[in-house]
Structure formats: C-alpha cells, structure tokens
Amino acid sequence: MIVRAKAPLRIGLAGGGTDVSPYSDKYGGFILNVTLDMFAYATIQTRDDDKICFSAQDIEQKYTQNIQDKLIVEDELILHKAIYKRVIQDFNGGKPIALDIITFSDAPPGSGLGSSSTMVVAILAAFRELLKLPLGEYDLAHLAYEIEREDCKLSGGKQDQYAATFGGFNFMEFYQDRVLVNPLRIRNDIQNELESQIILYFTGLSRDSGKIIDDQIKASTKTDSDKSLEALHKVKQSAFEMKECLLRNDIEGMSRVLEASWLAKKSTSSSISNSYIEEVASMAIENGAKSLKLSGAGGGGFMMLFVDPVDKQPLIKKLKQTSGQVHNFQFTNFGVKAWTVHNI
Fold first, then answer.
1. Which terms are listed as keywords in the entry (predicted)?
2. Is 160 part of the annotated catalytic residue set?
3. Which of 57, 164, 180, 184 could form a disulfide with 169 if both were Cys (CB 3.0 to 4.6 A apart)?
C-alpha cells in the first residue's frame, strides 16, 4: 500500500517568537502567517519483509533496521524515527509495521519557513491516511508539536505545525493550555497585491534556531522592564497591527509594521542578525526595498522584502548578484493533504 502527503511551508508576517514557551504560557502569543506553494512531501509504502527504512532525499540521509530491534530516537533522521515510534505506540498497540518513509522538502533545513515542523505534519498526515487515524486538524498539529518538542527535545515554538496543518492566512493565538487558529478570508485582489510587493530571498545561510530561541526563553523570564522582554511585547503587538492592515488592504501599513517589528525582533537576541544579513539589508534598502525581515527565528534562512512592484525586477537583479537566491512563490489557501495511491 502506498500513501502520500504534502504540507505547505509558511512565512511569518508578524508576531514570530511569541509562540515559544514560556512567553506564550505567561503572556499569550499572537502570530500572523500565511502558507506558500513550497511543500514538504512524504510517501509511506508498506514492505513485505521485516524492515523499516527512512529516507530524506533532500539531505541524502537513510536509515534501515529490523522491526524487531529497539528503535532509538537520536542522531540522523530523528524526526522520522520519533514519528514512527509514537504512531506505533499510540495508534497500533505497539505492533511494528514494516514500511518505508521517504521525504523531500522544497526548502532546506534552517530556512526559517518551518521546514522541519512541516515535514512532521506531512509524515503524520500520511500515517493518518494509511491507518485511518481519528485525528482532526488541531489533534494533528498538537501531536506534531509534542513529537518535536517533547519526544525529540528540539527547541521551538508552535506556529509551524498549525500553519502546515490549516494552511492559508491565519491569525493564531497561543496560551498555556490551548491554541486558537483564526482563518482570515483575504480577498483575491489583496492577496495578489501583497504577492506583487514581496520578494522571498534565501540568504544562503542555513541556521540553527536553538540559540535564538534560548535567548527568547531567557527574555520571557525577565522582569517587565527588561529590554528583550519589552521587545517581545512589541513583536506581539505587531501581529495585531499587521492583521488590521491586511484586512484593510493597507499594504504600505504592512510594510511599516514589518520594519518596526524587525527592529524589535533584533532586540530579543544578538544572534538574529549578523554582518552579512545587515550588508544585504542595506543594499536592498538602497535599491528600492521599503522594509524587510528574516522569516522564522532569524540568523539566516529566508528574508522577506517589501518593494514597490515597479522597483521589484531591478532589486531582484541586484539580489541575484549576491551569494543568495530569489525564490518565486504564491500564497496557498490549503493545509496538509494526504491520499492513497491506487494502482490502475
């Protein structure tokens, strides 16, 4: 039997970092994000021997073992191992299944587009299809979060799992005991204008978000007068302001909010920017960019730039002279999808 799944990657428009515990537990986190036509893909196919085989084709890693052997969740392909182990334990009575899990992502790890969490959602959705699991959208996203943060002990927030599961434009609320996803119905003309004003640029730097997230966790435990905590509050406020601008079709306003929130975000951790990122940012502003920010935790990955559409192509030409790459994209209005392959 063969099943496949695809889940969309996302860009955070505002509020990023406020979905990380303990900040979200203590103060509540708010994020505005949207999914793109870049995906994480998963195929699960059952085998007729007694082996499990995991393969991540984008990073060229493979792992194989007998199903009778104890599966240790560590080292390479830790997410694949953890998902398999959790699904077998929670949904198959501990009885192992011989199968292949084959994955591929349109974005590299450390891209700032939520690629790791999106991959977890895609694999889980494939298992949901394979085993007909009774998991709704919130269940799937929460399980993906638990596997990454609790089973694998990986640092990070909660937005990526919910963005990949629900898809589209969402205003998300994060509390200690619950997550609320508020889908936004954005008119096509607003989406088209927003797309026309955004450039998505990969800096060429893949980064480990752990240090940045650790800095934000420390900021969450500081007193209210602390500058890094104050900056996180400003980042959260930017999510409300960005949502209002988006709903009013105020793209100029969105650009101004992005500029202010990027300055606030940089105040939460010294690892968010670096000399190369600042050099590219200065060049972009000199060549027509109105505002910009790094997607995700920061430190590298993808940069999102606002630019007047008439200045877009000249700026893209300049960006192509750097060591990074410009990526074409469109917004998507759907979340994770899974299907069974029926042989004709």
1. ATP-binding, Kinase, Nucleotide-binding, Transferase
2. yes
3. 184
Tell me, what's the pLDDT at 106?
Answer: 94
The catalytically annotated residue of 25, 37, 69, 160 is 160
Residue type (1 letter), 28: G
CATH 3.30.70.890 residue window(s) in the chain = 188-329
3-state secondary structure 143-163: HHHHHHHHHCCCCCCCHHHHH
pLDDT at 216: 65
Angstrom distances, CA of residue 25 to CA of 140, 178, 235, 324: 21, 9, 16, 37
CA 344 to chain centre: 36
Measure the CA dihedral 243/248/249/253, to 10°: -60
Mean pLDDT is lowest, of 21-35, 105-119, 241-255, for 105-119
